[in-house]
User: What shape does this take?
Amino acid sequence: MKLNVIRKPDPFDLALLGLAVTFGVAIITFGVAIIYYFQLQSMQKSVDLARRSMQLEQRAWLYANVPNVFPLNGPDIPATLPVSNIGKTVATNIIGHVIGTTFNKGEHPALDQYGLGHAHTNIYMGALYPGTPGWPIPLKIVKYGDKAGEQPTTAVPDPDLTRRIQQRETFIILFGELRYCDIFGVPHWVKFCNGSGDALGFEGIKECIYYNRADNETEPAPSCLAAIPPK
Assistant: This one.
């Protein structure tokens, strides 16, 4: 008679099997964790993209309607710069600078220069709501002297200046910048430029056109928690 002998499992084999199972479970768990991590990353990117899209759609957008026609029949040359909010929410902590001046043909304005020696009109507004009429910023066109550091004087449209403008020997240019905050605590800026008269020249026109630009910021900044000081 043949007897079947039942062999007891080898403890070493059982240990190896347990180790293999544990290792397999660890690999599967790690793989699931990796997949879950990348899913979370993808979801976070989608949330951030949706948030930024919403901010871009709902944010404030300031617009300066720069004139290019100026009256020459008074004791000076006045100009009005209407600033409006064409966005969907309020703009706050609004500050800015604007310069209106004359240049002779071939000369180029020093754009972005609003410090000492560059006469400018400062702009301060607490808030500007969308859908409201443009806020008018009054200023007068000035004329810089020939010497460096010389204080500018009010441009007087006398017969000589009027003739030079009409004969395209002198042009009037108005440029500036605005800085403000939106309701999301994000700081923004917009720069503007426009002029009258062909004396500005092709290169000057290109510089003026290029100066018209705005930011695309979407990140909040502490500076938008309080009034922004002038530059």
User: Anything to note?
Assistant: The longest strand covers residues 91-104. The mean pLDDT is 80. Helices lie at 11-58, 159-166, 201-211. Residues 110 and 118 are 9 Å apart (CA to CA).
